[in-house]
Amino acid sequence: MLDKLIRKKGGREAAETPEGQNPGTREVPEHIAIIMDGNGRWAKKRALPRIAGHHEGMKTVRKITREANLLGVKVLTLYAFSTENWKRPKPEVEFLMKLPDEFLGTYLPELIEQNVRVEMIGDYESLPPHTKRAIRRAMDETAENDGLILNFAMNYGSRAELADAVKSIARSVDEGKVRPEEIDERMISAALMTAHLPEPDLLIRTSGEVRLSNFMLWQLAYTEFWFTDTLWPDFDEAALREAIDGYQARNRRYGGI
Ligand SMILES: Cc1cc(N2CCCCCC2)n2ncc(-c3ccc(F)cc3)c2n1
Prior knowledge:
Low-confidence stretches: 7-24
Bound molecules: the ligand Cc1cc(N2CCCCCC2)n2ncc(-c3ccc(F)cc3)c2n1
Largest sheet: 7 strands, mixed
Structural class: alpha/beta
Number of strands: 7
Distance between the termini: 28 Å
Strand content: 15-25%
Number of helices: 8
Shape: globular
Order of helices and strands: EHEHHEHEHEHHEEH
Helix content: 40-55%
């Protein structure tokens, strides 16, 4: 079983242990990002169509959102649809574009009850109208909630996000609002779709794949990675707690140096 925590040397802890927090201990991660992989493989193992895996994966979204909220996680970013996913067979893309409406139609009352706020990063405008309507309604109906932020990366690509940020800063230079020598890491972070969110403390990727797939490339610079062979539809509350335990244990050892 591949359950591996890979941590970038010289991570944030070396430079910025939050005020008053013992560097040797670690609270629950403030922001967890998840690449929800393995849905197609889950279906294939059961001789089911791929869309059955996506549908089962949607139930896991509900389960993990509830557990993360109970554990005190503040932001949960879920990679639901990448800009590359448009290349999949048309029927599969059409099914995926209906999932937000199905998920919210079923679970939005529960999310509201849990004080969850729904947000999205990615190219919203290029989504089909029915998909946009469902997401917009969920964001509007949960806008006042101040519990866990459930942030869906939809039609999202990190390189496209960075290119848009560069264009925005270049326009500011053109308009004389910014001088080139003023451009720094903070300005770039502030131009990203995640400007209002803390950077992820823990990235989880399921199904044994060990790559980032154009996901939050800038934001993950100091994030700890947890890779597990578990397929997303099988990833349950215990698996989430195991990843968080791994994250916390890692820092206790590191803090001991
Ligand atoms: C495209 C897609 C795929 C999708 N899968 C289920 C989870 C596994 C990954 C692929 C399939 N899920 N699950 C929930 C959503 C969703 C998105 C936005 C939103 F506001 C509310 C729910 C979703 N969207």
